[in-house]
Amino acid sequence: MSYIYRTLRKKCEEDSSLTPLLAQWEFDQKLLANALRSVVYSFPHYSMHDDSHSNTILIQIEKVLGKERIESLSGTDLWLLLEAAYSHDLGMVISEKDKKEALESQQFYEYLEEIIQDKNHENYEEARLIKSSEFKELLEKSPKTWPLDVSRSVTILLAEYFRSKHATRSKELIDQPSRIGLKSPRTGLIPSRLFSLLGKITESHGKDHEYVMNFPQFEDGIGMDKCHPRLIAFLLRLGDLLDIDNGRFCPVMLSSFGTLPKTSETHYEKHDSIEHLNISQSAIEITAKTDNYEVHGLLSKWFDWIKEEIVFINNNLSQIIPSVDFGGFPSANNLIVELLGYEIVENSHRLKVDIDPGKVIEMLRGTSLYSSSNVFIREILQNSVDATLLKYFCDNKSDLENLKSPNEFFEKLKKDDRYKISIHLSEVPKLDRNVTFRMEIEDSGIGISREEISYLLNMGTSYNNSRRKKIVKQMPEWMKPSGFFGIGFHSIFQVVDDVTISTKSIYDSCQYEIQFAEKGKQVKIRKVTNEDILTKSFTKITIDIESEKIPERFTYKYENEKALETISNFDALLDDEFPIKKANLIYDINDFVSDYQIPIYLNDYQLNKQAVDAKGIFCPESNSYIKINPVMSRLPGSNIFYRNQLVLKNTRDLYLKYLVYELDVMDGKADDYLTFSREKLSHEGIKRVDEILEKEVRQILELNYEQHPENKKLLSLAYHSNFDKSTEIIGDEWKDFEVNQSNDSSKFKTLREILLEESLTLKYQKKVSENEVLILKIVKDEYILDSRLDILDFFVEEIHKEFPHYKFLNFKNYSENTIIGNIPIQDRVLKKEFYFSKTEFTETEIILPGVLKSFFDNYKQHKGWGAVVKRTLLPLFSIKYTKISMEYISARSILPFIQSIYDSDFNIFKDFIINPFVFENNNWKVKGLEEAKQKTFKIKREKDNLIKLEEISKLFDELVAEIKGILKDESGE
Fold first, then answer.
1. Which segment of 60-64, 197-201, 789-793, 837-841 scores lowest on mean pLDDT?
2. Alpha helices (runs of H) in 242-315, residue ranges in sequence order
3. Pairing of strands 872-875, 605-606
């Protein structure tokens, strides 16, 4: 029996006008205790919110106030305290009717939608299950126990849904207790305003301080009584926070519920970690110890709430307490939570990634910092390279002093595995619809010291790293790290939420593990015990990259051979995984590595074995590598690198006529040359590079001119086209190029002779015959270097619309090299011819078999040219196959990335058939026939529930036989 209750009873004995309060409470105590015991049915995974929680709140309030101050309270104050302690969680009593109404409400639907939008939400899987009703997947995963999974999911979701509004529900239920079957009497003996006040006090434990301060400080109670609503509300709030001791969870209920959600598990450990608890009128002392980072964060937040509550009450004491004699509240200076096994940075109990405000404006230069999510590979590997170069310099400073060229250094470094960078890419087994790739990048570099961890957390502050600056200042210019932007690492959060870094610095004897979660919103740091005290410095970054097994969309670079291979081998009908993301990851790794001389390995295979001199000539004045190649093309094809990374490709900004070059600038800081994202040259960088080219290319052209006399024509052409100045070394041999005469291809003229002529004629011809076969043909003259094939395609479509009686018979694709004289130009021209005829078809034919044969032949040709998926769609070429044809959009809905067998020069065909043939080993083979039948049946059945699988199967068998005949059994079967 609480002292508050005993004091109320004593006051009622002394003042009979207060007896309605005692009668109401003694009746309500039993009713409310019974009601609160039902909370566990809706919240079985929560701490206990029954009458034991209410009694503990009263006990903690008694400790804070002491007997003397409790006795100074009015009878109405005491009644309000008792009722509030038992009523404040009444909103967690959820009736069956409440649950049904919630599940059918728009508000609950929106609540589920909000969870499903966040894959990191703790209840994401439960919400997805309940909202999408994916019971097929559930049955496969838990064939016998699926009802328990559904029940558990509904319980968790409803609990979270009602928990957020339980304080307000408590207030409503005090006004209308009958909503949950409570028959608490509401007689006129206690004014209804006091019940309304009680409702607001109970609601206050879920509100802010301002809400409580809107209560009256003084209020009339029963008879001559006064009560103090603000004081009662703050006592309830504080007592609720102080119910933090062990034993708040019921072991029996936990075992009946099963595996706890993460939040419940954390709260369980929160209570279990309390080691010291002392609450008195003068001080609140609590000590907790945990090795769980989430529990540490929750306890730290909980202790902050207690401190904030105490500080606010004491700062506003005169507006809360009944009188000055009442006194203040205890101090809360000794609330200590100890985190075992983890490091604390700058006295922060909740580490997170922060942004230096001074860098925010720079970050807003563009709407998107990086153009590609995979840019993190470049940034992380660049960090590894920089750390490795720093380590090598620290180890071998004296050996570098006498180097004349970086080539000597790189030649030596690429063979030294003590400074290698290792990348491991593996697949993490999972049972869901996604595939997860684990990427580990480990270097033998300088490492991240205990001091430098704060630079990692505070984005954009690494330029303050004075110790590293001191090392960099001593390094040769071409060896220095690329810059101190300090944000490159954080680009990783575009792709993943969680990152783990293991590291040991050359400055520390300890090894550290840094865990980033929620895109850096949570950071854990702990020392790692390592028995080998001689462990060398290193940094290892581990991330898990998730991808859908078959993504909704994808991109790739045409030069990505791995992606081309992946696309070409993908069969939309038979394959349940399309690993294009892995192919892109491998390509991006190779793309970064290709120009580095530090040994870099992917899954134990060294990626960069090329010779150092492949980078070209090193120019010491500009600290640049330059490699040039004169060509007969006027198209841009040059690449510019900054410290081995491509920053400008095929550029027109720094275009040199008849020259393809590669320039790698190993000079200055990244922000001298690059945009903030480090992906492209800045305007200032373009100016700097232009100066380097102007100076260095002249000298290299002269050197090549003297060393390679057989190439004088091209070198001369390149020099005079770009610099337009006479030179004592380079002559005008470019004028000696020979060109065919247009009227007699056996005769030649030099450009020198042609330039003396008064005029030149270039021809463009179009011929249309009036015969039965209509031919549209663009003839390319020898001197025309540009052919606009899109114009030809347009004409073909227009002819089909204007002359529908002309039937499409055939077409051909072929290509030729463009020739000027006897010199092939790097410009392939695709020629096409289309034929239309009035030849009549049979009643069932839509296009002739010869056209279908052409489609198969042209696919075969295109397959050799680039990325063409394996499984294709055939045009509906005969009316008899209408029942197994479908619209393109229907096919794509069940077969992602499937395409028509012909190259889409024009859009004539609307209906398609899944091709039962695939092209393998240079032959057409029947593959996936049964699957094609099943997929087609599934689509057709949606529109025609009378169609039978046997009917579909028979038509596909006839189709296979007919195509074999058309192909003359090319399949080899």
1. 789-793
2. 251-257, 262-272, 293-315
3. unpaired
Residues 497, 240: Cα–Cα separation, whole Å: 34
Please report which confidence band the pLDDT of residue 819 belongs to, taking 50, 70 and 90 as the band edges.
very low
Mean pLDDT along residues 796-821: 47
* Phi, psi angles (nearest 5°) of residue 446: -70, -20
How buried is 572 (Cβ within 10 angstroms: 0-12 exposed, 13-18 middle, 19+ buried)?
buried
Question: Tokens 């002359």 correspond to what residue?
Answer: 803
* CB burial of residue 553 (10 Å; 0-12, 13-18, 19+): exposed
Write down how long the chain is: 973
> What is the β-pairing status of strands 645-649 and 748-750?
unpaired
Per-residue tokens: 449: 């010291």
How is the beta sheet containing 639-642 ordered, strand by strand? 617-619, 624-630, 659-665, 639-642, 645-649
Gap between the Cα atoms of 219 and 225, Å rounded: 9
The residue type of 819 is I
The secondary element (H helix, E strand) that includes residue 699 is helix 683-707
Q: What is the distance between the alpha carbons of residues 719 and 738, in angstroms, rounded to a whole number?
A: 19
Task: Give 695's contacts (C-beta < 8 A, 6+ positions apart).
Answer: 621, 622
Of 292-306, 409-423, 621-635, 795-809, the least confident: 795-809
- Here the tokens at position 189 are 């003996």
Residues 600, 421 contacting (CB under 8 angstroms): yes
**Which residues, in sequence order, are bridge partners of residue 914?**
873
810 strand-pairing partners: 835
What spatial distance separates the first Cα and last Cα of the chain, rounded to whole Å?
92
pLDDT for the residue numbered 471: 86
Q: Is 505 exposed, middle or buried (0-12, 13-18, 19+ CB in 10 A)?
A: buried
Which of 804, 853, 833, 803 lies closest to 905 in space, CA to CA?
833
pLDDT, tens only, 825-874:
444 444 455 555 555 566 677 777 777 888 888 887 777 666 788 899 99
Alpha-carbon distance of 653 to 636, in angstroms, equals 9
Instruction: Report which DSSP code applies to 342.
Output: -
Nearest by Cα to 525 from 438, 463, 448: 448
Is this model's pTM higher than 0.85 or not?
no
